[in-house]
């Protein structure tokens, strides 16, 4: 991931908390103000049982309740119902509320992380494909339409690197699919720089890992070369070469005996 400086972290913290703090002071409708404890309880129960009253509970729940329900990490299939309801309401929201919802889903990395304990023993998320689809639906329906307004383009620089690495690879898939569309991504200049920085850092880490893996092999090759030099140029004969050498020696001995006998 990108190594952030202290200034970068401060800027990101201000951008993530600043708009929310401003909305708390302003008399605007926000997800925090539109939270109903009763509605949350009813929706939580409907999501747990999956009964026929889920559709009614979704319609009656306000935006704050829906976002909180996604925060709790329901199974991907039921999370889809929440996502569909949030996107369906997009035309009904005013600019302030629309930006607030948009910022929430961005900071939460579009709710890509699998709930703890719901993956396979190997750590994989069996609902990964559906979570990618849900995240794309949130981006297309909520983020992209408001990406050129408010603090969203600045916020991209803070959340895009995290989105790239979120959800055990699913975040990267979401980013690739967003890039694959023919529409403006809404990432903004700072968002693009942050994304490129994350990818470059990832490549550097992999290159360093390859170099670390290659070093022991290089050391072994150098050791073998050094050991050969220390042997003083000794030649190790193979079995076939030994047989030929023995035959030549026998012939040489025979020739010496012939010369000696002839001289006597």
Quickly describe the structure.
This protein has helices at 6-25, 37-49, 54-60, 63-71, 76-88, 95-107, 128-143, 152-164, 170-180, 188-230, 239-263. It is mainly alpha-helical and 264 residues long.
Description of the structure:
With about 260 residues, the chain is mainly α. It is about 70% helix and about 0% strand. It has eleven helices and no strands. It has helices at about 5-25, 35-50, 55-60, 65-70, 75-90, 95-105, 130-145, 150-165, 170-180, 190-230, 240-264. Helix 2 (about 35-50) packs antiparallel against helix 3 (about 55-60), helix 2 (about 35-50) crosses helix 4 and helix 6 (about 95-105) runs parallel beside helix 8 (about 150-165). The longest helix is centred in the last third of the chain and has 43 residues, at about 190-230. It is elongated and about 115 Å long.
Attribute tags:
single chain, mainly alpha, 264 residues, 69% helix
Strand content: under 5%
Radius of gyration: 34 Å
Distance between the termini: 92 Å
State the helicity in percent bands.
Answer: 55-70%
Number of helices: 11
Q: Give the structural class.
A: mainly alpha
Order of helices and strands: HHHHHHHHHHH
Instruction: Kindly report the oligomeric state of this protein.
Output: single chain
Number of strands: 0
Main beta-sheet annotation: none
Low-confidence stretches: 1-10, 18-33
Outline type: elongated
Mean pLDDT: 76
């Amino acid at each position: 991931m990108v190594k952030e400086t202290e200034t970068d972290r401060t800027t990101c913290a201000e951008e993530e908390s600043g708009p929310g703090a401003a909305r708390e002071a302003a008399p605007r409708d926000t997800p925090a103000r539109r939270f109903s404890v009763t509605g949350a309880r009813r929706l939580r129960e409907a999501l747990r049982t999956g009964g026929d009253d889920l559709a009614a509970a979704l319609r009656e729940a306000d935006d704050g309740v829906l976002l909180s329900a996604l925060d709790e990490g329901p199974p991907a299939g039921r999370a889809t119902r929440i996502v569909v309801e949030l996107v369906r309401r997009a035309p009904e929201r005013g600019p302030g509320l629309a930006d607030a919802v948009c910022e929430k889903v961005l900071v939460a990395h579009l709710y890509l992380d699998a709930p703890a304990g719901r993956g396979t023993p190997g750590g994989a998320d069996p609902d990964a494909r559906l979570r990618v689809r849900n995240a794309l639906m949130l981006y297309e329906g909520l983020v992209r339409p408001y990406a050129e307004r408010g603090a969203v383009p600045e916020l991209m620089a803070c959340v895009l690197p995290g989105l790239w690495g979120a959800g055990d690879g699913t975040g990267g898939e979401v980013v690739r699919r967003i890039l694959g569309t023919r529409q403006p991504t809404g990432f903004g200049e700072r968002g693009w720089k942050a994304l490129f920085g994350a990818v470059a850092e990832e490549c550097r880490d992999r290159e360093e890992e390859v170099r670390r893996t290659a070093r022991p092999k290089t050391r072994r090759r150098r050791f073998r070369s050094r050991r050969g030099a220390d042997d003083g140029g000794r030649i190790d004969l193979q079995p076939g070469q030994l047989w030929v050498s023995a035959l030549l020696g026998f012939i040489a001995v025979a020739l010496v005996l012939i010369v000696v006998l002839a001289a006597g």
